[in-house]
C-alpha cells in the first residue's frame, strides 16, 4: 500500500446557509489516480473548491490532512505551494497576461525559477505532448481560446507545475474526441513524469481510457455513497446512478 497523502474525514461544507457536503470521507495515497463520479449537484465541484480553499466554501466540521498537515489552516496560495492544483470547469480569461508569463511566474512561486531560455525549452517539450503550437505562449491567458484550447492550456500548466495532487474538474466536458484524447495524453504524461496523484471528476470514460485508475468514489447528496475499483465506472455507465440515489 502506498503512503497516504490526503485524508478527508467527516467533512461538512456549507455555502451560505446551505449545507452541501454532509460528512464526506475520502483518502488518497501517493501517486494514486482516483475518480469521482456522481449526478449533477452532488457536491463534486464543492469538494474540489473546498480542497483549494475557495472563500465562500465554509467548512463547518471535519478535517482535511495533506501530507500530514492541516490543510484547513492554509490559504489558497499556501495550498498550491504544498503541491495542490486544480483545473476548473470554466477557466477564466486574464487579459494583459501572457500564458508564458503566467506559467513561468507560477513555476517561480512554487520554487522552480527558470531562465527564459530554460522555460521556453521545457514549455516547448510539454506543448508537444499536447499538440499545442508554442505561439500560444505569447497569447493572453485564455483570451479568445476555444473550449478545447483552454483545457489544453490547463493541462499545460499541470505539466509545467508538477503538483503532488491534481484535481481535474470535468476537464473533458464539452471537448471533441480528438481534444479529449490529447488531454488524456497530457494527464498520462503527468502521471508518468511526476508520479503525482490525481483526483479526476468526470462523467465520461474517454479521458480515463489511457490512465490506470486505482479507485472510484461515487458522490451523492454530499457524501461518498459507493467506492470501488475501475469496474465501477463501467457499471455506472451501464446502469446510471439510480441505485445509489435511494435513501
Ligand atoms: P457538482 O459539481 O457535483 O455538479 P456542485 O458541487 O457544483 O455539484 O454543487 C452542489 C450543490 O451546491 C448544488 O446544489 C449547487 O446548486 C450548490 N452550489 C454550488 N455552488 C454554489 C454557490 N456558489 N452558491 C450556492 N449554491 C451553490
Ligand atoms: Mg461540478
Report a brief summary of the structure.
By secondary structure, the chain is of the alpha/beta class.
Q: Which key terms come to mind for this protein?
A:
247 residues; single chain; six-stranded mixed sheet; Rossmann fold; alpha/beta; binds adenosine-5'-diphosphate; globular; binds magnesium ion; 33% helix
Tell me the CATH topology: Rossmann fold
General shape: globular
Structure class: alpha/beta
Main sheet: which strands, in order across? Answer: 6-9-10-3-11-12
Element order, helices and strands? EEEHEEHEEHHEHEHEEEH
Give a verbal description of the structure.
It is globular, with a radius of gyration of 18 Å. It has a 6-stranded mixed sheet with strand order 6-9-10-3-11-12, with helices on both faces. The longest helix is centred in the last third of the chain and has 18 residues, at 177-194. The chain is built from 7 helices and 12 strands. By secondary structure, it is an alpha/beta fold. It has a single domain (4-246), classed as P-loop containing nucleotide triphosphate hydrolases (Rossmann fold, 3-Layer(aba) Sandwich), CATH 3.40.50. It binds adenosine-5'-diphosphate (ADP) and magnesium ion.
Topology:
Layout (H helix, E strand, L loop, with lengths): L3 E12 L2 E12 L3 E5 L6 H9 L5 E9 L2 E2 L5 H6 L2 E4 L6 E5 H11 L6 H14 L10 E2 L5 H15 L3 E5 L7 H18 L2 E5 L13 E6 L2 E6 L2 H9 L8
Parallel strand pairs: 3-10, 3-11, 6-9, 9-10
Antiparallel strand pairs: 1-2, 1-4, 4-5, 7-8, 11-12
Helix pairs in contact: 3-5, 5-6
The site of adenosine-5'-diphosphate has 12 residues, from strand 2 and helix 1.
Amino acid at each position: 500500500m502506498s503512503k497516504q497523502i490526503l485524508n478527508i474525514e467527516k467533512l461538512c461544507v456549507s455555502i451560505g446557509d446551505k449545507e452541501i457536503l454532509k460528512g464526506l470521507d475520502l483518502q488518497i495515497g501517493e501517486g494514486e489516480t482516483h475518480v469521482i463520479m456522481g449526478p449533477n449537484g452532488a457536491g463534486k465541484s464543492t469538494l474540489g473548491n473546498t480542497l483549494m480553499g475557495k472563500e465562500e466554501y465554509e467548512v463547518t466540521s471535519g478535517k482535511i490532512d495533506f501530507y500530514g498537515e492541516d490543510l484547513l489552516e492554509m490559504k489558497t496560495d499556501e495550498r498550491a505551494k504544498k503541491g495542490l492544483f486544480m483545473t476548473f470547469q470554466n477557466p477564466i480569461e486574464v487579459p494583459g497576461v501572457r500564458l508564458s508569463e503566467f506559467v513561468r511566474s507560477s513555476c517561480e512561486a512554487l520554487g522552480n525559477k527558470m531562465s527564459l531560455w530554460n522555460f521556453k525549452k521545457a514549455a516547448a517539450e510539454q506543448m508537444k505532448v499536447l499538440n499545442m503550437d508554442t505561439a500560444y505562449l505569447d497569447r493572453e491567458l485564455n483570451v479568445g481560446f476555444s473550449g478545447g484550447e483552454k483545457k489544453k492550456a490547463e493541462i499545460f500548466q499541470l505539466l509545467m507545475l508538477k503538483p503532488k495532487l491534481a484535481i481535474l474538474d470535468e476537464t473533458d466536458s464539452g471537448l471533441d474526441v480528438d481534444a479529449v484524447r490529447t488531454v488524456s495524453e497530457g494527464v498520462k504524461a503527468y502521471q508518468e513524469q511526476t508520479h503525482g496523484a490525481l483526483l479526476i471528476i468526470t462523467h465520461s470514460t474517454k479521458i480515463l481510457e489511457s490512465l490506470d485508475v486505482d479507485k472510484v468514489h461515487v458522490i451523492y447528496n454530499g457524501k461518498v455513497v459507493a467506492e470501488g475499483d475501475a469496474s465501477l465506472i463501467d457499471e455506472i455507465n451501464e446502469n446510471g446512478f439510480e441505485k445509489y440515489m435511494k435513501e
